[in-house]
Amino acid sequence: MNREGEEKKIAVSGILIFSVGLGLLFFVFSLAYQVFEDPLLLSFIETSSTGGGEGIDLNRLFTGLVYVAVVFAALWVMGSVAGRIASKGIELFKSRKG
Questions:
Q1: Cβ-contact 25, 86 below 8 angstroms
Q2: CA 76, CA 13: separation in Å to the nearest integer?
Q3: Full DSSP string of 3-65
Q4: CB-CB contact of 80 with 21 (8 Å)
Q5: What residues contact 60, with CB distance under 8 A and at least 6 apart?
Q6: What is the rounded distance in angstroms from the CA atom of residue 39 to the CA atom of residue 37?
Q7: For residue range 2-59, what is the model confidence (pLDDT) as tens digits?
Q8: What count of other Cβ atoms lies within 10 Å of the Cβ of residue 51?
């Protein structure tokens, strides 16, 4: 009876961890979808119209590219972490049998 109770706790823990990982994955995909649906979310820098020239345009382009790279890197990291959490939940659930 003790072994069965322990296996049940492991199974419930595995399902719970898997659910948390799956929820995080859905959250990351939701964030990515919002970014692709509304690209204006990525435009955070407003430059003044004083003193035109190409320096301002190149500055906006560079900072915009850096920001986009940071956003995509953050989404990639969050997605990979969420995937690993879900994977660990599955491994924990499978380990209850053996």
A1: yes
A2: 26
A3: HHHHHHHHHHHHHHHHHHHHHHHHHHHHHHHHHHH-GGGG------STT-SHHHHHHHHHHHH
A4: no
A5: 45, 47
A6: 6
A7: 878 888 888 888 899 999 989 988 888 888 778 767 666 555 545 445 555 555 677 7
A8: 7
- Show the tokens assigned to 4: 């069965």
pTM recorded for the entire structure: 0.64
Backbone angles phi, psi at 77, to 5 degrees: -65, -45
Q: Which of 34, 42, 27, 2 lies closest to 79, judged by CA?
A: 27
Per the document, the length of the chain is 98
